[in-house]
Amino acid sequence: MNAASLPAVDLVAVGASAGGIDAMMRLFHALPQPWHLPMVAVLHLPEGRESRLVEIFARRLRMPVCEAQDKADIAPGTLHFAPPGYHLFVERDRRFSLSCEPPVLYSRPSIDLMMSSAADAYGPRLAGMVLTGANEDGARGLADIGAAGGLTAVQAPQEAATPMMPQAAIAARAPDHVLPLTDLRELLMQLDALHAATH
Length: 199
Description:
Elements: E1 11-16, H1 20-28, E2 39-43, H2 53-60, E3 65-67, E4 79-81, E5 87-90, E6 96-99, H3 111-122, E7 126-130, H4 139-147, E8 151-155, H5 164-172, E9 177-179, H6 181-197
Parallel strand pairs: 1-2, 1-7, 2-4, 3-4, 7-8, 8-9
Antiparallel strand pairs: 5-6
Helix pairs in contact: 1-6, 3-4, 4-5
C-alpha cells in the first residue's frame, strides 16, 4: 500500500455483524498512541440486550472508547460505538444524532444509514470499512461513501468469519481496497499519520 497515494480523511466509519467483535478487536488492537482520527463503528447486536461493547473495547484498546450520544460532537482520537436499538446518523455539523426509525435490513443500528449520512457530511474526507457479517447491511452505505469520493475498504471475504457482508459490499460498488484485517490495520495507521500531518 502506497501511503503517498492515500487521501486525507477526517473520519473512519466501520461496520460489521456476525464475527464483528473479534474482527474489530483485531483491527483496532494496539494502534499507536497518540491516535488522532475519530472512528465511528456500527456492530449489530440483538435488540433489547444491554451493550457491553464500550466496556469490552475500552479494556483492551489504548484509545478512548465511548457510546455515541445524541447531539454529541465527534471527538478526535476516539472510537464511538452506535448504541443498541437506535440508528446513528452523522450530521453535517459533524455531530451525532439518534433515531428510533424502523430497522433497515432487520438491523437497528443500520450500517447503511450511518455510512450514508457520514458520506453526506464528510464527502471525500471519509474512509469506510465493511467487515465480516451475515447480511447485506453496509453495501449501500459503503457505495455512497465511494460515490462521494471517500476511501472504501472491505475485509477480504475469504478471511471473514461470515463473508456475506464483504461480498455484498464488493458487488454493490468495487471498493478501493479488499484486504485482510492486518492490512486494513496498516491502512488505518497510514490514514491516521496523514491526518496528524495535515492538522
